[in-house]
Design goal:
The complex is a heterodimer of chains A (184) and B (357). Chain A is an all-alpha fold. Chain A contains eleven helices and no strands. Helix content of chain A is 74%, strand content 0%. In chain A, helix 1 packs across helix 2. The longest helix of chain A is centred in the C-terminal third of the chain and has 26 residues. In chain B, the strands form four sheets. In chain B, strands 1, 2, 3, 4, 5, 8 and 9 form a seven-stranded antiparallel beta sheet that branches. The chains are: A mainly alpha (184), B mainly beta (357). The interface between A and B is medium-sized, with 36 and 27 residues.
């Protein structure tokens, strides 16, 4: 996301709806894309955008640190996506598929993961991940956030973020191998 | 990695739809903030302070010298409420000369809407500015008795010394209103002294038009918690043009969240809460309860309707309490299909009743 203009954020926090509107205009496409990666269709993604903008508008006055506007907005987006997914009951079918041994996660090397992920179809790959893993992949690889920033957004320890990312990459690797073997 | 990032960047963004969604969300946020600044009446007790209302009302036939209020068009429409936006002008009763001027302030009721779920009025106040602390709100009565229930209001400052108000009111359990009656309205900027307000109106209302677009269904389906000690019975669901009303009974043992008790552990009843000189609203041994559960109405296609107002009336029999409840949700465009009413108690497991329309 584009860096936030602090003057605008401060105005928005004080109830200036024009400033808020401008901040959203600059970020609406990013919010939509994040929502789309979760929801997989335009209508549901637009519903999420509506919820995100509405929630942000009525709570921006409570934002304590204007510097964290982008992080705060992404957190709202991720939470709205999760809530929407839960509502449409798309979660349950991924739970079993995503149980991996800690050992397998640890042996997955970080350095070659980038090559693996680059060759997998985005939406197909993301569908294989559970909600926590999917969130981390979206934030890490599509929003270019650091693991520390992701930990802040998800309100969880940095170690948890690393573990979940490892598991996600492990799953993507397995998916790629299976896809490759099937194509042979 | 680059290819993956490109995939994300290349997601097609529907610009027009996105703009419309963003604008709608900001408008909704503005309305919500206005509503927060307005008043909320959560229970019938808030209405009890109103005394007998039988005299001094203005009716449509009592036109006086009218003050010209510079406002053209529909006050309802100016609020662009999502649910009320389903209404057509022909669904509303427009009032041309329903205004009273006193102490330099003119209050004019412009439109009224009445159906099986709610009564709404739209009005203008000229000669006073809206402030958070001082603004005109409405109380409703029928045959001199306050109508119990809950609701909300929102306001728009239109110009200097001119603002509009929209009050939506959902009658509670025990407030059965006739198809057609004279709605008595007091508009006041001091709720504690509502009975002294000079702004009193009588408006003939009928819901015959709204009834044509209303679809009531008898459900009568129930479910129990796993332990069998709690039961949810969905009795009726009514889809009106502006909201969805569900009537249900929730039977449960004594538990945190209700009923309210005195210092000796004896359950309080509504009559025992009523102060001197204030009339009783609900008849019988109605226990005074705080909310002890949450309720959700979900279409199994994925849509969840927002619960706007929720009222109940509690009886006790054989150590079990039964909340007779009425909950109001947002309107649904397409009512046919599978529905779930989900009750989440303060203690114990969630109970779900599935039904099909």
């Amino acid at each position: 996301m584009v860096p936030a203009d602090m003057d605008k954020v401060k105005k928005a926090c004080k109830g200036d709806s024009e400033a808020f509107s401008e901040l959203i205009q600059e970020r609406k496409a990013e919010i939509y894309k994040i929502a789309y990666t979760y929801m997989k269709n335009q209508d549901n993604a637009l519903d999420v955008v509506h919820e995100v903008v509405y929630k942000a508008f009525i709570s921006v006055a409570k934002l304590k640190s204007p510097e964290s506007f982008n992080t705060w907005l992404i957190r709202i987006t991720v939470n709205c996506c999760m809530d929407s997914l839960k509502k449409i009951q798309k979660l349950a079918r991924f739970e079993e598929a995503c149980v991996y041994s800690e050992e397998a996660a640890q042996t997955d090397a970080w350095d070659d993961s980038a090559n693996l992920i680059s060759s997998i179809d985005l939406f197909k790959a993301i569908d294989k991940l559970n909600i926590e893993q999917r969130t981390i992949v979206v934030l890490k690889y599509y929003q270019d956030l650091t693991l520390a920033q992701i930990a802040e957004i998800l309100v969880c320890p940095l170690g948890t973020v690393k573990t979940r990312l490892n598991k996600a990459l492990s799953l993507l690797r397995r998916d790629l191998k299976e896809g490759y073997n099937e194509s042979m | 990695m680059r290819a993956c990032k490109d995939d994300f960047d290349n997601i097609n963004v529907p610009e027009m739809e996105l703009d419309a969604v963003v604008n709608r969300a900001i408008s909704k946020g503005k309305r919500q903030i206005r509503i927060r600044k307005g008043f909320r009446m959560g229970a019938s007790a808030a209405m009890i302070g109103l005394c007998i209302l039988g005299s001094g009302f203005v009716s449509t036939s009592m036109a006086k010298v009218l003050v010209n209020i510079p406002f053209v068009g529909s006050v309802f429409e100016s609020f662009a409420d999502k649910d009320l936006a389903n209404l057509k002008t022909s669904d509303l009763t427009s009032l041309e000369d329903m205004q009273i001027t006193a102490n330099g302030i003119t209050v004019a009721i412009k439109e009224v809407y009445y159906d099986r779920s709610n009564i709404s009025i739209a009005y203008l106040v000229s000669g006073a500015d809206y402030t958070d602390k001082k603004h005109f709100s409405a109380v409703f009565a029928c045959n001199g008795l306050p109508i119990g229930g809950g609701g909300g209001a929102c306001y728009n400052q239109i110009a200097d010394k001119l603002y509009s108000g929209l009050v939506k009111y959902y009658p509670g359990v025990g407030s059965e209103l006739p198809d057609k009656f004279n709605l008595e309205v007091i508009l006041t900027d001091n709720m504690e002294k509502a009975q002294e307000s000079p702004y009193r109106f009588v408006i003939p209302v009928t819901r015959s038009q709204a009834d044509e677009k209303t679809r009531p269904f008898l459900v009568m389906k129930s479910a129990q918690s796993g332990s069998g000690e709690r039961t949810l019975l969905v009795k009726k669901i009514v889809f009106t043009p502006v909201s969805t009303l569900v009537e249900y009974d929730y039977t449960h043992p004594d538990e945190p969240g209700g009923p309210d008790k005195n210092e000796h552990g004896v359950a309080l009843t509504v009559p025992s809460l009523i102060k001197n000189g204030i009339r009783e609203v609900l008849e019988g041994d109605t226990l005074a309860f705080q909310g002890n559960h949450k309720i959700r109405l979900i279409r199994r296609a994925g849509q969840e309707l927002n619960c706007g107002s929720h009222s109940w009336h509690v009886d006790k029999k054989n150590d079990l309490y039964t909340n007779q409840c009425r909950a109001y949700f947002g309107a649904s465009d397409d009512v046919n299909g599978d529905w779930t009413l989900e009750l989440v108690p303060q203690k114990g497991e969630t109970i779900k009743v599935d039904f099909t329309i």
